[in-house]
């Protein structure tokens, strides 16, 4: 009867211990599962973090390119404005010179018309004639009438000389104006060509800016997607980490419960062992008191008796 009760108690202890182990094992498995998920999420999270940083670096590089392109474009635009200003000044000068040339042409045309009605005499030739006649008056002893006639001729030639000189000067000024206008037009044309070339370069830089801006827009989309994915995984990581922290007290409790069950079982086994030893020792004492062959002591009896004494 006593052995049956002990077996039942042992069975109860075993079942209780098994339930405790199962509870501890479940918590441990749950924690391990969460840790595995955390590791997987953390790996993916860091990958998206790296992608986001890569997008950010690319955007930074593209912004640098845009700044350089914008600087170059602005420099070209400023250059265009300066060249345009110079071209406009040249065009203004050309207009003024053309106006002056037209006025000069009127004078030349008038003088030419007068010249066509009279024999043409070179101004320099007239000057030499005047000089010769004046020298003749000074060096030759002319009569009063001759000198008077000579002075009259000199006066008439001087008038011709002044008219011829004006025509010559007008022609000279006209030719000079024509040269100046040609020079100004050539420079104005060069400035115009420079404006066209610089404007093309400026437009090219502007198109580069537009292209780079579109590229940045695409990169920002990628950066945003990577950031959102990173934040989503970060949130999942934080949630799982909170679950893990919440399970740690439960894990501790399950561990303590298992330890308590083990201690209980160990104490029960120890108590049962002491009880068995006490019963055997009592049996040995009875055998010793009774004596005789019928109550012969076995090795187990002696060991049990010795154990109780110790």
Task: Describe the structure concisely for a colleague.
The chain has 310 residues and is mostly helical. Helices cover 94% and strands 0% of the residues. The protein has one domain.
Kindly describe this structure.
This protein has 310 residues and is mainly α. The protein has one domain. Helix content is 94%, strand content 0%. It has helices at residues 2-117, 123-139, 144-290, 299-309. α1 (2-117) packs antiparallel against α3 (144-290) and α2 packs across α3. The longest helix is centred in the C-terminal third of the chain and has 147 residues, at 144-290.
Give the SSE layout.
Blueprint: H1 2-117, H2 123-139, H3 144-290, H4 299-309
Fraction in helix? over 70%
Q: Identify low-pLDDT runs.
A: 1-22
**Total domains, how many?**
1
Number of strands: 0
Report the radius of gyration as a whole number of Å. 63 Å
Proportion in β-strands: under 5%
**Rough shape?**
rod-shaped
* SSE order: HHHH
Tell me, rounded to a whole number, the average pLDDT. Answer: 80
SS class = mainly alpha
The description of the largest β-sheet is:
none
Please work out how many helical segments DSSP would assign.
Answer: 4
Gap between N and C termini: 29 Å
List keywords for this structure.
single chain, 310 residues, mainly alpha, disordered N terminus
């Amino acid at each position: 009867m006593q052995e049956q009760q002990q077996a039942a108690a042992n069975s109860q202890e075993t079942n209780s211990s098994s339930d405790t182990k199962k509870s501890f094992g479940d918590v441990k498995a749950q924690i391990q599962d969460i840790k595995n998920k955390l590791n997987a999420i953390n790996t993916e999270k860091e990958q998206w973090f790296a992608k986001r940083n890569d997008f950010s670096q690319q955007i930074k590089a593209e912004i640098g390119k845009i700044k350089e392109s914008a600087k170059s474009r602005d420099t070209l635009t400023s250059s265009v404005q300066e060249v345009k200003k110079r071209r406009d000044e040249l065009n203004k000068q050309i207009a003024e010179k053309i106006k002056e040339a037209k006025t000069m042409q009127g004078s030349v045309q008038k003088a030419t018309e007068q010249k066509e009605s009279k024999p043409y005499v070179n101004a320099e030739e007239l000057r030499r004639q005047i000089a010769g006649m004046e020298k003749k008056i000074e060096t030759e002893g002319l009569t009063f009438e001759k000198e008077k006639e000579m002075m009259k001729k000199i006066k008439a030639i001087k008038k011709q000389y002044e008219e011829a000189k004006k025509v010559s000067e007008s022609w000279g000024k006209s030719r000079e104006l024509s040269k100046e206008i040609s020079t100004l037009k050539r420079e104005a044309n060069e400035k115009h060509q420079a404006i066209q070339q610089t404007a093309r370069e400026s437009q090219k830089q502007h198109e580069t800016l537009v292209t780079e801006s579109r590229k940045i827009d695409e990169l920002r989309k990628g950066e945003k997607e990577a950031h959102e994915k990173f934040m989503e995984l970060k949130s999942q990581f934080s949630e799982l980490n909170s679950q893990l922290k919440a399970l740690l007290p439960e894990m501790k409790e399950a561990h303590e419960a298992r330890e308590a069950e083990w201690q209980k079982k160990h104490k029960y086994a120890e108590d049962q062992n002491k009880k068995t030893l006490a019963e055997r020792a009592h049996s040995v004492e009875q055998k010793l008191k009774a004596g005789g062959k019928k109550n012969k002591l076995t090795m187990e009896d002696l060991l049990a008796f010795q154990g109780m004494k110790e």
